[in-house]
Amino acid sequence: MNCPVCKIGEMKVGETTVLLERGASIIIIKNVPAYICENCGEKYYDSDITRQVMRRAEEAVQKGTELEVLRLVA
Question: What is the CA radius of gyration of the chain?
Fold first, then answer.
């Protein structure tokens, strides 16, 4: 599949790091499975991965976390 952004690169399966901020909280989630464009680096996540990332981030924010680094175990 070609990248919908650059239209040149091929989307390859890989892992990436996601950084999310909300208010005073910064959450970094490592080892997130994604489709990554080999040309421009654009990343896409399937819906199950997106739900996991958002759930983990919301849990961290609700705890009052200022900075948290997590590893996604898919």
Answer: 14
